[in-house]
């Protein structure tokens, strides 16, 4: 439960992104605990590692603790010139996953990157597209971004499909080592112009104005 004073002291606590099915917001202690438990249950088929940082290979208890520490670390290290916003995703009031958006020198570069995961039992319901749409709306319509970047390993068909559906275009490749084996990552880029000329589900933003200084902005 959020303290009534917290949104004043830390405006991000009052930020809300709402889509037809989902709500995205900074997690409170109970929601962060639920997110950690969801990660412990499983995020993907354990036979295939979709992340370049294989955090999901840890045993369930460690995986849960890693989720907690990652969120705490991002909050503690937040700077307007270098920020990572991790939002818990709720469906019908229940935590189903996490959607992140991050940037360095955003006020100058106007470029963001996104990353996300859903609990394994929530896959295949179109939530990945809806939650990415929410943070892209935040980035482009709310913060005035000019570019959004994403990336997925070649075998991560679900993530690549979300990016293609939302209009991203190829932006090169990277080579990574995952589980001791070479892995090819596809980089993708979406411009504000490409985003503007597509139809999207409606997204409502609440509490953004108070947060702008934390993103390095005095206005959009």
Description:
The chain has 220 residues and is an alpha+beta fold. It has a single domain (6-215), classed as 3-Layer(aba) Sandwich (Aminopeptidase), CATH 3.40.630. It has seven helices and nine strands; from the N terminus they run αββααββαβαβαββαβ. It has a nine-stranded mixed beta sheet, sandwiched between helices. A hairpin with a 3-residue loop joins strand 1 (16-18) and strand 2 (22-25). Helix 2 packs antiparallel against helix 3 (60-76). The longest helix is centred in the N-terminal third of the chain and has 17 residues, at 60-76.
Approximately how much beta-strand content do the residues carry? 25-35%
CATH homologous superfamily caption: Gcn5-related N-acetyltransferase (GNAT)
Can you identify the CATH class?
Alpha Beta
Structural class: alpha+beta
What is the H/E order?
HEEHHEEHEHEHEEHE
CATH topology: Aminopeptidase
In terms of quaternary structure, what is this? single chain
How far the N terminus sits from the C terminus, by CA atoms, comes to 30 Å
The second-level CATH architecture is 3-Layer(aba) Sandwich
Q: Order of strands across the widest beta sheet?
A: 7-8-6-5-4-3-2-1-9
Spatial extent as radius of gyration:
17 Å
Total strands? 9
Parts with pLDDT < 50 across at least 5 consecutive residues? none
Could you tell me the mean pLDDT?
94
Number of helices: 7
Secondary structure: helix percent: 25-40%
Can you tell me the number of structural domains?
Answer: 1
Task: Report the sheet with the most strands, covering strand number, pairing sense and barrel closure.
Answer: 9 strands, mixed
């Amino acid at each position: 439960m959020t303290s009534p004073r917290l949104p004043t002291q830390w405006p991000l606590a009052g930020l809300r992104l709402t889509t037809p099915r989902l709500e995205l917001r900074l997690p409170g202690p109970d929601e962060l605990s639920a997110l950690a438990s969801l990660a412990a249950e499983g995020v993907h088929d354990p036979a295939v590692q979709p992340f370049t940082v294989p955090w999901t290979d840890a045993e369930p208890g460690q995986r849960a603790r890693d989720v907690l520490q990652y969120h705490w670390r991002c909050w503690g290290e937040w700077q307007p010139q270098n920020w990572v916003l991790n939002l818990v995703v709720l469906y019908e009031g229940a935590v189903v996953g996490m959607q992140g958006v991050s940037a360095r020198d955003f006020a100058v570069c106007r470029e963001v990157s996104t990353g996300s995961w859903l609990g394994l039992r929530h896959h295949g319901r179109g939530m990945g597209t809806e939650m990415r749409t929410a943070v892209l709306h935040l980035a482009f319509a709310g913060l005035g971004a000019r570019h959004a970047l994403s990336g997925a390993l070649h075998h991560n068909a679900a993530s690549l499909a979300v990016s293609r559906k939302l209009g991203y275009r190829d932006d090169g490749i990277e080579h990574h080592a995952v589980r001791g084996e070479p892995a090819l990552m596809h980089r993708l880029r979406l411009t504000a112009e490409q985003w503007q000329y597509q139809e999207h589900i409606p997204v409502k933003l609440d509490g953004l104005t108070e947060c702008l200084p934390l993103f390095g902005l005095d206005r959009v």
